[in-house]
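Quick review question:
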């Protein structure tokens, strides 16, 4: 907790400034105060937590799961074969140059307002950091250690499982810390552009009613969900990569 003390203090100061500024402007539909946002979230807790949050988390988890499988598979394939790397890597980069807001309506046209139009958007923006980071992790192994294992008679499979994979694990968890908040954002954006449920959809509905606190309440829940998920990843990372603290 001590290492987060500075962050907590800065966050509290920013909230105080926000509260004072909101009271000075005195226009709830433009800038609601943090207290009003919390009050709104609490008053709408049943519909937000029991209806819209599960819908957004479903999109997030499915899209993130697909991204993990796809990203790791592409990274391994590119690491194993240089021709595959030359063919796939530019395409992976190009997928990130097209704005998601431009593609989301197309996915809605293809898949309708079902969960899959939103899953595709979430997958599209999250598989890139996983692919690139895991690929860099697999390439980060020291050549002298590879050569040492080869002299001991290790096969390519042994080198991958006992050397490259452990080296890539920190990169994998780092990519998840990037992908998880992005997946939450991607799910919300896709719901803004076309959905019948979800926190993004609810925020958009509140905007049409000029309810500033109602717009920010789902955003608050999205932020808390992302923070909790990243904290879980940090916990799993510390439990999985114990050797990093020993070197």
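Suggested answer, residue by residue:
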């Amino acid at each position: 907790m001590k290492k987060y003390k500075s962050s907590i203090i800065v966050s509290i100061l920013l909230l105080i400034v926000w509260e004072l500024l909101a009271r000075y402007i005195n226009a709830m539909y433009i800038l609601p105060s943090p207290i009003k946002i919390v009050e709104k979230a609490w008053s709408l807790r049943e519909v937000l937590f029991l209806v819209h949050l599960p819908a957004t988390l479903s999109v997030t988890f499915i899209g993130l799961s697909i991204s993990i499988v796809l990203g790791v598979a592409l990274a391994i394939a590119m690491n194993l074969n240089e021709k595959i790397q030359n063919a796939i890597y530019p395409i992976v980069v190009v997928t990130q140059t097209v704005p998601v807001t431009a593609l989301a309506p197309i996915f809605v046209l293809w898949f309708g307002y079902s969960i899959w139009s939103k899953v595709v958007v979430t997958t599209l923006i999250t598989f890139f950091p996983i692919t690139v980071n895991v690929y860099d992790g697999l390439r980060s192994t020291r050549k002298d250690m590879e050569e040492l294992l080869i002299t001991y008679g290790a096969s390519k499979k042994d080198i991958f499982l006992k050397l490259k994979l452990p080296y890539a694990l920190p990169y994998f968890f780092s990519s998840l810390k990037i992908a998880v908040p992005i997946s939450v954002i991607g799910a919300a954006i896709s719901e803004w552009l076309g959905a019948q449920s979800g926190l993004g959809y609810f925020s958009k509905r509140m905007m049409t009613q000029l309810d500033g606190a109602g717009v920010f309440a789902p955003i608050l829940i999205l932020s808390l969900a992302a923070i909790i998920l990243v904290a879980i990843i940090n916990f799993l990372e510390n439990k999985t990569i114990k050797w990093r603290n020993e070197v």
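Why it works: The radius of gyration is 22 Å. The domain at 38-240 is CATH 1.10.3720.10 (MetI-like fold).
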